[in-house]
Amino acid sequence: MADAQVTCIVKPNVQSPHEHITHLGNPAGQWVWTREQVIASIEDKSNTFYVLDQASGKRADIGVVRESGKLPYLRTYADGQWNNNLLSLNQCLI
Question: How many independent structural domains does the chain possess?
Fold first, then answer.
């Protein structure tokens, strides 16, 4: 199992704070995956993904959130709480 740091995201509308993320990646690691690939990889336990909080340097693990009537989505989890660290990442260039 690989433990991968996510350093960038892709959203269709860059300015939207609530737009769904379509891709996650790490240019230094030379990878960009679709949201669906990351979800499948987390759920089959083949990889783990995380971000580092830019202010504190703390690790926030990425998990899959499933809510009734909605498509599954990704969120970070740190210090016992779900948060939106992913949305604050820079855009990936794909």
Answer: 1
Sort 40 into a burial class: Cβ within 10 Å, 0-12 / 13-18 / 19+: middle
CB atoms within 10 A of CB 20: 13
Q: Is 33 in contact with 4 (CB distance < 8 Å)?
A: no
- The rounded distance, in Å, linking the Cα atoms of 58 and 13 is 27
DSSP string, 37-62: HHHHHHHTTSEEEEEE-TTT--EEEE
User: Which residue segment(s) compose the domain that 67 sits in?
Assistant: 2-91
The token pair at 50 is 């995380």
pLDDT, tens digit, 9 for 90 and up, residues 7-25 = 999 998 777 666 789 999 9
pTM assigned to the model: 0.87
How many of the other CB atoms lie within 10 Å of CB of 42?
18
